[in-house]
Design goal:
Layout: H1 3-14, H2 19-25, H3 30-39, H4 41-67, H5 71-79, H6 83-92, H7 102-117, H8 123-131, H9 137-143
């Protein structure tokens, strides 16, 4: 693959095209792109960077949806975090004091916040909880 074809491939990946389709749009077979990726480390890095940016956009959308109370988005977000995150959360006790899985915590969180939002006396506390990135499991345990 020449420089222009590689640049076009990176552009297509950055726009969200799937690798095989991006290869065809650049006038190459997917096999040729794989060979170029193996041979040209700079090209491989550019493709990886473009892919990571696409993934970051999707992660941001899922996270925002989860914070707005979408239980399925919360489940997905929590169950697809890195192993390091899951181990840190479950073992070191940020959520792990209860022994619950991240999905169980997400479900409990949504239920508790829903309950808190329907009671005038607790609405402000619930809104403060929603503004944070992490909701304290101790609050959930006490409220449930």
């Amino acid at each position: 693959m020449d420089f222009d074809a590689k640049a076009e491939y990176v552009k297509q990946i950055a726009k969200g095209e799937r690798p095989a389709h991006a290869a065809v749009l650049c006038g190459h077979a997917p096999r040729a792109v794989r060979a170029a990726l193996a041979e040209d480390k700079d090209f491989a890095t550019e493709v990886r960077d473009a892919t990571e940016m696409q993934n970051a956009d999707v992660e941001a959308a899922i996270f925002k949806s989860a914070k707005r109370g979408n239980l399925e988005a919360a489940k997905y977000w929590l169950s697809h975090r890195s192993e390091d995150w899951t181990e840190r959360v479950m073992v070191k006790g940020q959520f792990g004091q209860t022994g619950q899985s991240p999905i169980q915590i997400a479900q409990a969180t949504v239920l508790v916040i829903g309950e808190l939002l329907t009671t005038p006396d607790t609405q402000q506390m619930a809104l403060r909880m929603l503004e944070g990135d992490i909701i304290d499991a101790d609050i959930i345990d006490e409220a449930s």
